[in-house]
């Protein structure tokens, strides 16, 4: 019997207060909390709204290729120099294909491992550890029939050749796990636990396709103060008083990826404190200064929807042990609500990160039918009236390679070559999020 794809599955661990829930549809993160009645994740109250209210990208997995590519005919090269041509259909705007493109005209079955993307429209299948092809020896356990409580799960799909306009049959697996956190931190307080998100993918070894563009992310959005009755009211349910900070890897700088008027990457990179030379650069963003910057300080009229690049980092440990990969050297992001006494720090092996402050969402109060459903009750404790998910209600933090990285020569050395998955390789993308409270 198939599991209910809209019933939240809860992850927790001994000696960790952090609890995370996911739904198999879109492998969507539904909640993230450190205590009863709290929720750090924005989005709808009803899990079924993720399907019923259209693609608002409120916390699902994204692929085969995240963010924006130019629609139409493209070409890319395999490691051996072979050129392959693809033709991608428009989705979201003229000349643009966003987040894997339009929904497939092929109906997905709730209980099938074969799923037609884009990935946020798939029914991700929990698998037993013994049936995992990419995480079987990782040290984490999984079951195909999750119960009330587990600390880790593995979800899998098989994406057919031609899926989302991309060549090659793929096996994609995602490991999610909650583990105990580190000791107390003088600045952030007590750790409630760590959450591991790890994607692995491989081309079919028997297929004829040598390489395919591939760049995944999770489009998860955080609001650390909305569940706090007093602070949520003062903040009007928004993240504009949150502090966002980027940490450059040792010896590297962080740059802003410039966009053209269609929001397609140009390949140009600008310093974070540079002048406002294009609509996509708000100027002195300064996320990488000591202490970071308040999101609402110098907020552009449309909010932030920007990608920041530091590039590939050598010598990141290749380990399945969270404590060996989530170190000070791999810390890339901190999001803090000082007033609520809550923070999330994020570590990753990816070349960059997107910050989106929900600027495409309508203003409060938002029509639930137009904004992904009714916002969570846990985010209305401050007396906000019933509403959909509105502009500024969360900060989406999406790790991955730079947009169009495999297409633009200037980005090839900054993670773009990692966006071509070759036969015989295993794509390995991880993020560790640690929750803190004072």
From TrEMBL:
GO MF, one example: carbohydrate binding
Domain of life of the organism in this record? Answer: Eukaryota
Q: Which InterPro entries match?
A: Aldose_1/G6P_1-epimerase, Gal_mutarotase_sf_dom, GH-type_carb-bd
One GO biological-process annotation of the entry reads: glucose metabolic process
Question: Looking at the record, which segments are called Disordered?
Answer: 360-384
The protein, known as: Aldose 1-epimerase
Source species, please? Kalmanozyma brasiliensis (strain GHG001)
**Taxonomic path:** Eukaryota, Fungi, Dikarya, Basidiomycota, Ustilaginomycotina
């Amino acid at each position: 019997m198939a599991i209910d794809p809209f019933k939240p599955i809860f992850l927790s661990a001994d000696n960790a207060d952090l609890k995370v829930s996911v739904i198999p549809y879109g492998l969507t993160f539904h909640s993230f909390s450190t205590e009863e009645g709290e929720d750090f994740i924005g989005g709808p109250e009803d899990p079924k709204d993720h399907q019923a209210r259209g693609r608002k990208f409120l916390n699902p997995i994204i692929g085969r290729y995240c963010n924006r590519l130019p629609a139409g005919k493209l070409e890319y090269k395999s490691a051996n120099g072979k050129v392959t041509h693809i033709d991608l259909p428009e989705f979201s705007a003229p000349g643009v294909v966003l987040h894997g493109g339009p929904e497939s005209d092929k109906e997905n079955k709730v209980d099938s491992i074969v799923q037609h993307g884009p990935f946020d429209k798939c029914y991700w299948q929990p698998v037993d550890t013994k049936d995992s092809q990419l995480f079987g020896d990782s040290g984490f356990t999984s079951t195909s029939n999750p119960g009330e409580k587990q600390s880790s799960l593995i979800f899998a799909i098989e994406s057919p050749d031609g899926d989302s306009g991309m060549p090659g049959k793929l096996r994609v697996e995602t490991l999610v796990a909650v583990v105990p956190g580190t000791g107390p931190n003088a600045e952030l307080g007590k750790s409630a636990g760590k959450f591991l998100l790890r994607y692995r993918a491989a081309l079919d070894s028997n297929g004829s396709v040598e390489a395919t563009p591939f760049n995944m992310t999770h489009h998860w959005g955080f609001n650390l103060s909305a569940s706090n009755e007093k602070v949520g009211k003062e903040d009007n349910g928004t993240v504009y008083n949150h502090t966002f900070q980027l940490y450059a890897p040792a010896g590297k700088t962080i740059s802003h990826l410039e966009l053209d008027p269609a929001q397609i990457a140009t390949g140009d990179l600008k310093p974070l404190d540079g002048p406002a030379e294009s609509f996509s650069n708000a100027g002195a963003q300064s996320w990488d200064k000591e202490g970071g910057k308040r999101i609402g300080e110098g907020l552009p009229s449309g909010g932030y929807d920007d990608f920041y690049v530091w590039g590939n980092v050598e010598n990141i440990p290749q380990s399945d042990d969270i404590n060996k990969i989530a170190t000070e050297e791999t810390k890339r992001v901190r999001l803090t609500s000082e007033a609520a006494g809550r923070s999330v720090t994020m570590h990753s092996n990816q070349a960059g990160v997107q910050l989106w402050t929900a600027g495409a969402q309508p203003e409060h109060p938002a029509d639930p039918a137009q904004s992904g459903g009714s916002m969570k009750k846990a985010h209305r404790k401050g007396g906000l009236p019933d509403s959909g998910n509105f502009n500024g209600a969360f900060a989406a933090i999406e790790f991955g390679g730079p947009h169009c990285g495999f297409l633009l020569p200037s980005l090839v050395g900054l993670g773009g070559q990692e966006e071509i998955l070759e036969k015989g390789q295993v794509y390995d993308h991880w993020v560790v999020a640690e929750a803190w409270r004072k």
